[in-house]
Task: structure prediction
Amino acid sequence: MPAEVRQFSCLSDNFGVLIHDPDSGTTIAIDVPDAKPYLEVLQETGWQLSHILITHHHWDHVQGLDELKAKTGAHVVGPELSRGKVAGFDETVADGDTITVGPYSVEAIGTPGHTLDQISWFFPELKIAHTGDTLFSLGCGRIFEGDAEMMWASLSTLKRKLPADTTIYCGHEYTQSNARFSLTIEPDNAALKARAAEVDTLRAAGKPTLPTTMAQELATNPFLRANEPSVKAALGMTAASDADVFAEIRTRKDKA
Result:
């Protein structure tokens, strides 16, 4: 049987994600903004939580971890670079590590920039990735601990390692504001205009805009498209490096 994935709201604009394998009973949580919604979904489904994977140390991704671990006994895996900042890890990983979680091999992809410890989790067999606060739908995370060159390198790593048919989950529901900003960068991008309209329809109906796909982001997300000649031309930066173009887009978004 295929994996079952449940995505649900946490806090004001975070997402919780549970991945369940019906055959083995393995159930994986990614980040824990708040334990309560996780416990409610687990009770509703009857799933037993076996693993918790953490993307980075920010409070809105880990503040429910202690409670969820205490109530489920789940095995917690997080970035080695978070070890001194997050209590409760049973195992840590670094960029390039692969762990076995139930029937799945899960790749830890280091994607620093938003924070230095940020790990994106990739499930090749499921064609699913969780990119934390690195890659959002039509956006990327603010740069708090790294720099623009580091964040561009991390996004470039995701472009290289995640196939186009990968389903992308991430930490926040920011897509509508990201879409409005993206249109200021590429107002003539037909795929982006269609996506922006779809996002407005979803949000008007109170529905989430996630998950997205890597193919959709490659076609519409200006932060991933900083190397595209059309984007450079639109910014008047035809001769600039990809990283410099990305930095300009990120600066504009920070000021938007």
Observations:
- The longest strand covers residues 4-10.
- The mean pLDDT is 97.
- The first helix runs from residue 35 to 45.
- Residues 175-255 form one domain.
